[in-house]
């Protein structure tokens, strides 16, 4: 068998393919079709490979000699949204909606950091929320996917600490106003 190169403009193996001409029996080195197109007819000893553009909702991402383009088969399902729409050169790309992350091919809701815990790292499309226990001097009194631990307030200007802060609540400050019938009145 003889290898014939007709209309070969590139020597990169990714942009060429071998084809046996059914009329002559010769093996030809044909030019591949560029991404976004597909093969309509193989090359011959006198004509180059004929290519045509992909139709709507179809694509080819690589140099190819496919008889038709591939169908854009990625469908964004529950808790997903389109990141990149189908184009002649790429399939549709889906990602998790805000508030969700990819786990085992499904989009799970980001974890909430509970009382006494704050967000160390907010969740992304690819990773869950990372929580941390509030350190001494900080608190979190809510369950949240976004809130970090907050610093305890400091009592000032003659205020007293009525309730010391913890990991779950802020410091409560107040003023001693008067002594009525042996009872101390505190105003927060």
From TrEMBL:
Gene: LOC107378725
Keyword Signal: yes
Classification lineage: Eukaryota, Metazoa, Chordata, Craniata, Vertebrata
PANTHER family per UniProt: TUMOR NECROSIS FACTOR RECEPTOR SUPERFAMILY MEMBER, TUMOR NECROSIS FACTOR RECEPTOR SUPERFAMILY MEMBER 11B
Protein's recorded name: TNFR-Cys domain-containing protein
TNFR-Cys repeat boundaries on the chain: 53-94, 133-173
Localization: Secreted
Paired cysteines (S-S): 54-69, 76-94, 134-149, 155-173
Pfam families named among the record's database cross-references: TNFR_c6
InterPro entries given in the database record: TNFR/NGFR_Cys_rich_reg, TNFRSF_decoy_receptor
